[in-house]
Amino acid sequence: MVGFNHLYIPGPTNVPDRVRRAIDIPMEDMRAPDFPQFVSPLLEDLKKIFKTEQGRVYVFPGSGTGGWEAALSNTLSPGDKVLASRFGQFSKLWAYMCERLGLNVEVVDCEWGEGVPVQTYADILAKDTNHEIKAVLTCHNETATGVASDIGEVRKALDDNNHPALLFVDGVSSIASMDFRMDEWGVDCAVTGSQKGFMLPTGLAIIAVSQKALEAGKTAQLPRCYFDFGWNSMAHEQGYFPYTPATTLLRGLREAVNMLFEEGLENVFARHKRLAEAVRRGVHAWGLELVAKDEKLYSPTVTAIRLPDHVDGKAFIKHAYYQYNLSLGGGLERLAGKVFRIGHLGDVNEIMAQSALAGAEMCLRDFGVEVTPGAGVGAAQEYLRTANAQAAARAAE
Q1: By three-state DSSP, how is residue 212 classified?
Q2: What's the CA dihedral at 114, 118, 119, 125 to 10 degrees?
């Protein structure tokens, strides 16, 4: 098929040309005497993305899943009790990992489309007067359902109950795209990956860790080696890694961070909010429903859309790919065959977001869904024209 594939899954995301060029370099000596001049400033700049001054950042060859394991294995011991909730595929998988690692998991099951059950967490923490719960797991942005949760409210639930549990956050599809305030929210381990907001290929797990979590690691007994924070800290202090790092991806990460700083983090967050609102207005113009149960839960990075009962979601995704060279996200587990997802994070602009709507709209009509031609794109256009003009005016003030 002529042209290129239009990638609108919620990760991996499109890799900008600048990042691709930064990656496309010869192999280099990761023990070279000048390598720390590259590594040390990169690690410091990553702290700015997480908005932490006190924490430390670790970059492992791996994925967000590896980051989950690093957070758990470096801070907890076998049998420790953790509090988790399941309201989508990825919050579910992190809780499952806890079980496999031998932790005692208290799980709060929620309807998919809801967010972190803050009030339920608060009630459980209030009853835990012996402080048996050692960590609280949260998913900032549930990629499977297009739901964003308020991590600041989870911190408040911990503080209101004077509870010392560590606060862990899965920020894989939020960090570098959505505002994240590690120090302000008292986050102890924040996990993300290279393939979403950082606009890189898959291959890096990026983790920010508080001093409190590092202190917990001194007595934690879960096995760890490759993901050991202490081992990596000793090397990072010299500007190196304790193993062969993914040097080309690190060079790409440097360029991606440069791009985020050049746009300005607050502008990055505002852009994602605008694009998300435009996509949602397009969906509403089709007369379809979102998986997210409430406006306050709407994600700035991914929109999950319920299909009419007569449409097979798997066939819909396949049709978009082969008929229109368009990659849309499918429904996962209990949502399989029932929804499709549009990812609007990373290197995405206004016209790109509208092309996702245009392709999806054609697919809907192909499957017999009564949609007025151009309705979704038109709704997005009118919103973006106004929103972008207002953003430009504010920037000029």
Answers
A1: helix
A2: 140
pLDDT of residue 394: 77
Token pair in block for residue 200: 């890189």
CA distances from 187 to 46, 146, 207, 282, 363 (A): 15, 22, 11, 35, 42
Reported as a pLDDT band with limits 50, 70 and 90, residue 3 is confident
Q: What pLDDT, on a 0 to 100 scale, did the predictor assign at position 30? A: 96
pLDDT at 222 > cutoff 90:
yes
Structure tokens at 386: 């106004």
Same structural domain for residues 224 and 281? no
CA distance 17 to 203: 18
Domain termination residue (choose one: 262, 292, 319): 262
Whichever domain contains 274, its CATH number is: 3.90.1150.10
Note the pLDDT of residue 40.
97
Strands of the sheet containing 81-86, edge to edge, are: 56-61, 204-209, 189-193, 166-170, 133-139, 81-86, 104-109
174-189 per-position pLDDT tens digit: 999 999 999 999 999 9
Q: Tokens 């000048």 — which residue?
A: 34
Same domain as 207, residue 289: no
Residue span of the structural domain in which 211 resides? 17-262
